[in-house]
Amino acid sequence: MANKLFALDIGTRSVVGIILEQHADTHHVADILVREHKERAMVDGQIHNVLYVAELIQEIKNELEETHGPLEKVSVAAAGRALKTEQASVSISIKNRPIFTEEDINRLELQAVQQAQQQLLLHKEDTKNNHYYCVGYSVLYFRLDGEEIGSLLDQQGEEASVEVIATFLPRVVVESLLAALKRANLEMEALTLEPIAAINVLIPPSMRRLNVALVDIGAGTSDIAITDKSTVVAYGMVPTAGDEITESLSDHYLLDFPVAEMAKRQLHTSNEILIQDILGFDEYFPREEVIKAIYPAIENLAKSIGEEILRLNNNTPPKAVMLVGGGSLTPHLTEEIGKILNLPANRVAIRDVNAIQNLTRAPHIAATPELVTPIGIAIAAQKSPIHYMSIKVNEQVVRLFELKEMTVGDAFLAANVRAKQLYGKPGHGLSITVNGQNVFVPGEHGQPAQIILNGENASIKSLIKNGDQIQLIPGKDGSGASVTIGEIIDHASVKIVTIQETQYTIGPKIFVNGQIGKMDLLLQDRDVIVVETSETVEDVLKSINYSIHAQQFQPYFVHIDGKPVSFPDFSSQLFINGKPGKLHYPVQNGDIITFEQRHLPTAEQIAAHLNLLLEEKVIVTFQQEQVELVKTAREFSVNGQVVPREATMPNGATISIMEKDSRKWIYQDVFRFSSWQLPASFKGSFTILKNGQPSSFDAEIFGGDQLEIHLTDQPIVG
């Protein structure tokens, strides 16, 4: 025996009642009844006057019952134009946390859906309508550290993010449907969504990997659904449809709206259109002439639909467009939409009930595109009905609109459980400045909340059914960050260095907020740390207050008469690991530093290196005795003061060398250094000899000369 299905398509201009008989895998359309609204009871898919809509439903019900018997239950659809689609992304830091689990991914997805819900509340115009059912969502992509990735499962990194597209239905749309059915003494057997109904019968799941647009052109609105990546990725609506064409006819030919509607329908069936204007004149017009008159309206309708398709499809034309609904029969509409989308003519097509597989119909039922959605409602509601379910979340009763297999996550959405509640709060972090650089030490990650479903552990994706009880046990909050200086400072800054066979441990100098700090000091938020490390030989010597002054290891030089002169022989030698080094050379852990210390030179030593004599000496033989003759040849003046020749010369001293007695040695100079004198009683004469030859007192002498004065007694005269 056939299973009889009763379905209603409640549209802006009319209500369609349909009787569908199911025979195994086939469906037969037994009857269809169309009744137009007497008043403007529907606006944008939402019932605004429940009484008027209920009366029309009652009228259809009564008429169908005369032929098909009592009708108590009915399948209906929520208008696609009432659906709201939002795209949202969420990023979280996963630094220093365990690898990503399936449950972590589920909670991240829930957080993204809730973000989409928040965006929807911000964008909507009606601020009173603040409750939405999430009827489904799709993950567009996961990202790890900014790079798109197939899955976050078992991944580690710095940041994880997910972007979803979620679809929502206002609760008031469903409630108004229920109220109208109740007044007509009908029980809602099942509920579906208009775009889903049409897509289910025209675009099977195997085709949804293709990027296809389905447009249901009604009287007041054109509903659009886009498929791609094996799912429905977007829904949209434009407030332009068949009435646009009717109004154009009415304006051009001065027709009452119902008369213009009749004339519009003749365009599909007659070559001559009978038109009676408001003055009562009847006249026949050729079909092409009428189409030409309303062509701007046709172009406007095509433009509105095409631009909305592009907007929903990320400004990219889909692969194909399917048109259903009464308005799809508008002449030349398919080719105009093709122009807007830059699609060939065979990629934009009208689909009627003949496109529905395994469907038959009674002879009196025409195969028109406007019947696709009503038939789809009946079939979709029967194949995948949507019910209400009642569950408890932490003892709060939550009623869910069962559009799909419902999960714990859906229950949390309905109960307004925020995704942040599914994790304990992270502990407070510390913000610290180290040598001018900001360092953030995160607190401990919070532990995840525990989800209990009917007494058993569960996850966000666990399926739920009517009457289930869910308990959410809050996760444990993480501890605040705790860190010492030693944990912040790199231990490589501590060096062990051997200096002159003594081992030293060279650590950094640490200042916390201007005060000396120790490695085990616990840091506080906003502490300012300055670390001074010993990087060079000079740094190391200063840090241990070594007794050898660093100046001694500078190259030795002095300024002589305004010119710098270096003396490597007087510079102390420094060695690092046995190789010559300098004070600015870097020091590594384990280095051995030795040095050969040199004493500061005297004036005499510097003069010797310059091949200059401070004293001039000669040795001669005088009266058979050796005599040394000495005189000052030069004097050193340091910083303007004359110094003795044994005085040490500081590194970098300014020295002037002054020439003193430069005269040649003469014979008479010998008397200043010899004790020989003429005898007091001597009365004779003497002869001056130099090297055995007669000479004189002013004769020049040289070292090694033999000098002699030969005395001759004066004879006595008697």
Automatic annotation (TrEMBL):
Keywords: Cell cycle, Cell division
Recorded superkingdom: Bacteria
Pfam family, one: FtsA
GO biological process, one term: cell division
Domain SHS2: from-to ranges: 5-202
UniProt keyword Cell inner membrane, yes or no: no
PANTHER family the UniProt entry points to: CELL DIVISION PROTEIN FTSA-RELATED, ETHANOLAMINE UTILIZATION PROTEIN EUTJ
The protein's name in its UniProt record: Cell division protein
Species whose genome carries this gene: Solibacillus kalamii
